[in-house]
């Protein structure tokens, strides 16, 4: 049986020594896919519509990875002073890609920045910094080892994530932005104790999850988050067989 092909979005960066431009991503994403039973393929940022269509056609499932902030103009806002580095080309590429994936109903997992890309692609907005969420908001950009957990997320009954983990799950946390206005066709699947949205899911969709934490990094320490990836791979197998 053919192993499902999982496309993983990349980030645009530079070699710290030579300054040469790079299209890359962390090895933990690749390892998570192979551990879950799939084959990883890295997807560079392109904005050509035919090339985006070809990427969607070539892969059975997708991971939208973490990375820099989304340019606020993508959701109709001016940049707050606390917004970090952005790349409009990367934003247009990933928003265009995830919209195409949704149209084909292929399975995907959107992680951290990817979770935010999903919300924006569906017409939602973001808190440009979690401090804007209001008083009592915890610090979600933790400086511990990326495999360490830092807080719990409460999951809603009837969601894919609840069926995987139950009502409460420990997660790591490396984000300073979060969902503000929820995008169309989405439902909130999990929240932190301070009210920050930590997980969203597409309504009536085979496997379309957005999670704010980094499950691929947590796999370095334990297999607790492996169901997120095996679920994606199983859904990709079904998509490939159609």
Written overview of the protein:
By secondary structure, this protein is of the alpha/beta class. It is built from 7 helices and 13 strands. It has helices spanning 27-36, 49-58, 88-104, 113-121, 160-165, 215-218, 226-241; strands at residues 5-9, 11-14, 21-24, 39-43, 61-64, 108-111, 126-127, 151-155, 168-171, 178-179, 186-192, 197-202, 208-211. A hairpin with a 4-residue loop joins strand 11 and strand 12. The longest helix is centred in the middle third of the chain and has 17 residues, at 88-104. It starts with a strand and ends with a helix.
Sequence of secondary-structure elements:
EEEHEHEHEHEEHEEEEEHH
Distance linking N and C termini: 14 Å
Q: How many helices does DSSP assign?
A: 7
Low-confidence segments = none
Q: How would you write the strand order of the largest sheet?
A: 4-1-5-6-13-12-11-8-9
Q: Helix/strand-derived class?
A: alpha/beta
| CA-atom Rg in angstroms | 17 Å
User: What's the count of strands?
Assistant: 13
User: What is the residue-averaged pLDDT?
Assistant: 91
Helix share, percent: 25-40%
Strand content: 15-25%
Overall spatial form: globular
Major beta sheet summary: 9 strands, mixed
Describe the SSE topology.
Elements: E1 5-9, E2 11-14, E3 21-24, H1 27-36, E4 39-43, H2 49-58, E5 61-64, H3 88-104, E6 108-111, H4 113-121, E7 126-127, E8 151-155, H5 160-165, E9 168-171, E10 178-179, E11 186-192, E12 197-202, E13 208-211, H6 215-218, H7 226-241
Parallel strand pairs: 1-4, 1-5, 5-6, 6-13
Antiparallel strand pairs: 2-3, 7-10, 8-9, 8-11, 11-12, 12-13
Helix pairs in contact: 1-7, 2-3, 3-4
Pfam families: Peptidase_C26
Organism: Ventrimonas faecis
InterPro entries: Class_I_gatase-like, Peptidase_C26, PuuD-like
